[in-house]
Amino acid sequence: MATNNGLVYLIALPLFGALTLLLLGRKADKWGHLLATAMSAGSFAFGLVQLSQMLDREAELRPVTQKLFTWISVGSFNVDAALLLDQLSICFVLLITGVGTLIHIYSISYMSHDEDRRRFFAYLNLFIASMLLLVLGDSYLNLYVGWEGVGLASYLLIGFWNKKPAYATASKKAFVMNRIGDMGLSFAIMIAFASLGTVSFSGVKEHAHHASEATMTAIGIMLLIAAVGKSAQFPLQAWLGDAMAGPTPVSALIHAATMVTAGVYLIVRSNFVFDAAPNAQLLVVIVGAITLLFGAIIGMAKDDIKKALAASTMSQIGYMILASGLGPAGYAYAIMHLLTHGFFKAGMFLGAGSVMHGMNDEVDMRKYGGLRKFMPITFVTFGLGYLAIIGVPPFAGFYSKDMIIETALNAGGAKGIILGTITLIGAAITAFYMTRVMIMTFTSPKRWDDNQHPHESPALMWIPMAILAIGSVISGYLLYQGKAFKHWLEPLFEKHGEHTELLPPIVVSGLALTMVAIGVAIAVIKYQLSEVDSVAPEKVSIFTRIARRDLLQDDVNEALFMRPGQALTSALVKVDDSVVDGAVRGVGKMALGSGSALRKTQTGFVRSYAVLILIGAASLIAAIWVVTT
Question: Which residue range is the domain that position 574 belongs to?
Fold first, then answer.
């Protein structure tokens, strides 16, 4: 494998920006946002150079590495701090830095009145650097460093406005739930080290052929737990909706294009693990299928525009996880949908921020309506993202999501029927709730009062939205054309998925578009042709109330984990207080009691001491006499 000593600059630029802004503090307030944006843009430009060089090489010569230094060297176990840039990681590098730079530009205007804007941009750069390390690390241990860095940066960004207790709680919830997933990754690394003697991707891939299926299954399940936590998949998805407490650019960056897709990257990067562990691979499919429907159902009931988009993200990541669980036939399509999703979902999140900007930070869609007249650019750019996500041809989602549906349907047997049905139902529900968002926000009658003065956002906000909208239109076609993207990634997979065609593509597309049309029609009838539902919460159906409460996931977590955990903690506190601390206190009391008793012998009178000396001497003489006779 060739070496490239310049890979480190991809990470060094945003890391330099973050450190500079954090160390200089208020001195960088006036220009900090410009430096951070330049560092992200510089990293993107360097990524384009790397892509150009990669395209000039043969497929087998495209991966390049850079060793930074020897990190761990203990006996036969050696781990280098090293970077790997190949066909998979370059996709993420360009997505992270490209979309990230657009979000930086958007944030210059969006955060212009925030007194801590410089700190916000420092955290954005820190996040970009951590995410780049995650996707460029050449081993699970290097990936783990970036993985934890992303967790820290997301905690800082979600809780950026931590003066509000609810926002601080949301960041803590995201941090804690992600730690559960992180334990899975750490256990996977431990199992790989103990069983295979290596934690590098190439080393684990080499040993996968000879290791037992039980070992690979254990590693695969642990990796899945890690992916579930980071990508907000069932059953660790409850943090995602609350994470909308952060500034809207954070939602676009973390919850659309980067952090929540890290789990998909981990599974696809570990394809050799899951190919050798069919049971773990099946669990991946099950998790993706459940989350796909779970997020879609929640999205139907949310009135908060950002939380509706968050539920949509959860569902779309479910599509990606499901596809990655279908093995070689689905790996490329999982990443393809991830890339197109990065365009249209980031664009819609920024569009939501634009709506909030024009509506005094109002997020309740029941208080919107008719905004297309006042925010035409936001309406068009958001609308293009909407057409992409529901899968209308020729927009991006039509190509990427339809390929996942087709792969699921062609899985064969009962599995194909079940997964195909789930993906088609998910497509219908997606069309319904996204049409609902469009209608309630832009096309339904006005529902805001005269104190609101909706207006279009400034150019620094709508230009990034327009660029992302263009990506929402053309990215799917460019990646699908001639199956170019599938061929691009194939050299990374040992087993190449043969494309079975139980159902012709035209039939699959017809089924998918029919389901989309049904979802759109129901939403139009319910929200465009009827008055938008604004009844009191207690009058809403029980099903809607359950969906608005995230299908009771917090309640389940509270009942299964929090309450028993609190009871266990209380019991342990009592044991500690009565047994451990009790023993310590007992020793102390004995010492105090003995001291008190001995103290009484110290009277301070000479005659008392003389008597004691006399008694002691007599006792000693008597003892000697007894012993010697």
Answer: 557-628
